[in-house]
Amino acid sequence: MRSINKNLAGLFRFVLVLLGSCTVHSFQPFRIATANRHHHFFLRTSARTEKDGQDDEMYLERVNNPGRRNLILNVATAGALSASWASLWYLFNQNLYTPEGFSRFPTTQFIAALGDPSSSAGTGAKYWGVWRKDPGPRGVWLKDYGRELESNYNLAPAGWKFDPQDWWLEEHGLIMEAPQFPIPAGRYLVTGGRQVTTGLTISEDGSWKLDKGTLFDVTHLPCRSARYTPVAEGKGSPKDARLADFPVKPGSIMPSVPGTNKQDYAVLFLLGKAIS
């Protein structure tokens, strides 16, 4: 998991460059009449290096089919521009859009959720957890388990306590701190970092309901997480995990670890809560 980048300036600059490129390529090339024929040329600039001992020079490049050339350039530019506008919309929807009645947290938090991905409402939210801080950067790589956790009384460098009887992994092979259980009842603003940013209501009895979309729509697919509980004493250690199983593809289930029971959790970006 990674914190969301809220700086849109780079994307805006990219869109402006594409707009300028589209405008430039819409112009027709020069036409020069010779021997009863019209030839098309583009004006080019050739950059000379100091080694050449010459200044930059201008020259004409003949174009046999300017219409086709312009079409190819404009189609490619339009495609890139469309993709950039889609990305811009997703960034706005995720980072700036705030429905009336909600306020955003200073930093993104994360919900570990269970439920039918195709449902817009359900029960069991009393078994959902919440990470108030991004657990990824605070995690410990599987390969470093012995050195950074086992030999350090199960205390992670970031200060959280590892429980050998109930431990968590994320999609890159990082051992994570457990989320806080349960997430308190309330009204929250959630997203999956794609098209849907919406309200989530969690009631005291553990029932939950989204204002729009489904649990899948507000699940961040690249973030995968699972909870592992050993089936017997002395079994199911992070040492038993297969490093080759990581990283996990977006949307895939987490790998099993010999000697453990596994429970996959969906990860939701928790952006804010209702204004009281």
Question: What distinguishing features does this structure have?
Answer:
single chain, 276 residues, alpha+beta, 2 domains, eleven-stranded antiparallel beta sheet, three-stranded antiparallel beta sheet, 3 helices, 14 strands, 18% helix, signal
What is the residue-mean pLDDT, rounded to a whole number? 80
Our Rg estimate from Cα atoms comes to 27 Å
Structural class: alpha+beta
The rounded distance between the terminal residues' Cα atoms is: 29 Å
What is the helical fraction, as a range of percent?
10-25%
Classify the oligomer: single chain
Helix-strand sequence = HEEEHEEEEHEEEEEEE
Strand content: 25-35%
Low-confidence blocks of residues: 2-11, 13-35, 40-53
Output the number of helix runs: 3
Strand tally: 14
Largest sheet: 11 strands, antiparallel
State the shape: globular
Number of domains: 2
Keywords: Signal
Signal peptide: 1-26
